[in-house]
Give the backbone structure.
Amino acid sequence: MMRLASPLWLGLIVAAAVLLVVWLLRRRWQRFPFPDVAAALGRAGRFPERTVMAGVLAAVALAPLAVALARPQEVLSRRLERAEGVDLVVALDISGSMSALDFEPTDRLGVAKEVIGQFLDGRTNDRFALVAFAGAAVTLCPLTLDHTVARHLLDEVRMGSLPDGTAIGLGLGTAVARLRRSEADSKVVVLVTDGSNNTGQLDPINAAEMAAELGITVHTVLVGRSGMVPVPVPVRDPRTGRVTQQVRQMEMEINPELLAEVARITGGSSFRARDSKALKEVFEAIDGLEKTEFTSTKLVRYRERFEPWAVAALVVLLLGTALEGLAGKTPW
C-alpha cells in the first residue's frame, strides 16, 4: 500500500502545465506576430526546434519532481489501538421556561447549550444526535461523527421554534427512535429539561419502557430550581404595538420524581443542576459513566519511495540542458 505524505505538491504539475502553455504561446507570438506571414514563409508547420524541445523538457521535469516532493511512501506496518465511543442522543428542552434567568451568565438554555457543546468536544469518538422538544419534538441532527456540524446545529437552537409546552414523553420518544436501528453496544439518551410533562401524546414512562426494551440507557438532567424564578416576558405596548422584554417573577413547576423514574427504568442515572457549575459537574459525571471500547487501526511505519521520481526529474532536466547546448542558445 502506498501513500503521499505531502500531496499538495502535486499542484506543481498543474502550475507547470499552465506556465508551459503560456510560454509557448508567448514565444510563438514574439517570433511570428503575423501568422499569415509565418505561413507564407513555411515556418508555421515545422517540427519544433531543439531550443523549444529543451524548454518543454524543462517543464516536463517538474512532473516527477512534484511527485518526489509529495513523498510517496510504502506502508510497512499497522498498529491496532483501542478507543472508546457510544451512540448518544441529547434531548434538549427548548420550552419557554428555559429562558429563566436563574443560571449565569445567560439563561437556562444558553448555559445548557454551552455545557453540552463542551461535553460533545470531549467525546470525539461518539456518534452524536440532537433532539429538541417543547410542545412538540423534532430531530435537529441525526447520528453523526461530524461534530463540527453537530456543534453548529446545537449553537443554532432557539426557543420559539416549536409550540410551547413541555412534552418530555415526545422528546424522549423521538430520541429513542434515533437509536432504534443503532448497532452500537452502548446506546445512550441524555434528557435535559427544567419542567414537568404537561403536553404530548406519549407518556414519559411509556417512552422509558420503550428505551429499556431496546437496550437504551437514559440519563435525566433536571436544570433550574422550583418556586419563584425571574423570567423575561414579552410585553406589547397597547398604544404603539412595540414589544419589549420585562423580567417578572414566575412560579416554576418541576417533577424530579418523574425524571428519576425514567432513569431507573432504563438503568440510567438522574441528576439535578441548580446552577451552571452543577450542570458542568453533571455532564462530567455522565462522561465518566458512558465508555465503550472498540478497536481502530493506525498506520505507523513507512518506507520513502521518492528517489526514483527525483532521479527521473534530474534525467529530464539533463536531457533538456543537452538539447539547449546543441542548439547553442537558451530556450527562455
